Every structure is written in C-alpha cells, then in structure tokens.
Amino acid sequence: MEKPVKRVDPYDVVPKYHQLFELIRQKIEEGDWQPYQPIPSERDLVDLYNVSRVTVRQALENLAIQGYVFREHGKGTFVSPPKLQQNIQMLNSFSEDMQGRGLAPGQKILKFEVIAPSAKIAERLEIEPDNEQVIFIERLRLAGSEVMGLQRCYLNLPNRLQFTQAELEKASSLYRLLEEKLNVFPLEADEELEAAVADAQDAKLLGVPLGSPILSIERTVWSQYRRPFEFVHMIFRGDRYRYFWHTTRAMRRGF
Length: 255
Known about the structure:
Blueprint: H1 16-29, H2 42-49, H3 53-65, E1 69-72, E2 76-79, E3 84-87, H4 94-100, E4 105-115, H5 119-125, E5 134-143, E6 146-155, H6 165-171, H7 174-182, E7 186-197, H8 200-206, E8 213-223, E9 228-237, E10 241-244
Helix pairs in contact: 1-3, 2-3
C-alpha cells in the first residue's frame, strides 16, 4: 500500500520550494525512492504536489547541490547513491577505503614529475626549498569508473628512495607501494578539512559543475622514522563523499 502523498502547504511561512525539498528528501532517506531510480518528471511533480514548475526546479537544484539527486542530460533526474563515509580517525589510503566498502579502487595519473617544492610544501615536509626536490603526483581517484576525487601529492622520501610511474600504476595504491617496495610505513598524520567549491580546473577534472561543493583536505603524513614524508591536498566531490568522527569527553572529578 502506497503512502499518502504529503502536500506543500501554500499558507506555511516556509517557502514552497523548501517544503518540496524536504518532502522529496524524506522520500529518498526513507527508501521510498531507491538509488539510481528516476524520480518523477518536473511536470509530474507539479501535478503531484500542486506547485509551480519554478518551485520544482528550485527544489531539485537544491537537492542536486546537496547530493540527493543527480541529472543526466536527456534522461531525467535520478536518486543519488549514498555518500561514501570516511572515518577521520583512521589513516587509510584511498584504495584501502574503497576496498573496505566492497568497491574497486582506481586511479588516473595526470602528472608524475620531480619538482622544486614551494615554500608551503617545504615547510610541511620540513625541508629547505632551495636545496631539495620532491616527487609530485596528481591523480584522479576512482570508485569503479566513477570519479570520486583528486589528489595532489608531494613526497620527500628518506634516503632519496624512488619509484616509477609504471610501478605506481601497477600497485594502484601509493601506500602499498611505499610499504612493500621501499619499506616506508605511513604511521600518523595531521589533517585539515574545509568545505569549498570547485573552481574551473577542478570542476572539469571531477566532472561536476563549476561551483559544486567539495571537501578540501590537506594531510601531512609521518613515517616510522618520525619525519614527514608526504603532503597531499585531496579534493573529494561533496555529493559523493563525507567524513565522520567519534569524540569523547573526559570525565571530571565530582561528577
């Protein structure tokens, strides 16, 4: 038996488009509309909820921005799959993260070169910018065939250890390659996370509209030698990725 359709209240102080946004979001979160399922057309939503097409379009735009739906040109609007969630307390590689979800991790290497570090990179890696060089790797990160994010990685490996682009392509996981070939183990990291919007370059690489929400993460990683060896700037699609963490509060005496 189908649930009764909740209506948009024309006399409510809440704008009609936001009421419609909440009604559709509720249907998605309660599983009435499943991932990759097409939602009703704009015309059908107009008739179903007795609202204008302008209201429908604004509600759908907000739903798309927040990652509840996605659009395919000429086909319609579809329910987005659930966002992938990363535990912020675990130092996992992207490949380990995807494998833990039962997804096939992938990469597309855009750049692999040795460069002189900027002052910021040198500071994070605790090296002298004028006397050192670092390995720079820019990669698209994939789950199956879907682009999830973009990583720009700077490496200062101990004892001038090296590896090739071909070796990274074969290993697919940078951390696995470092551990198995070079005996460099990522042990701990500091991360800074902020919400941002995609600029023209990153939007094109990620395959999202200009100004789309993204998660911007900067990570400095220390090896077993207690020296920073990696600084990486990671950009993840805001509609497909989210972070979570669990916190505790210390008990005070007398409570």
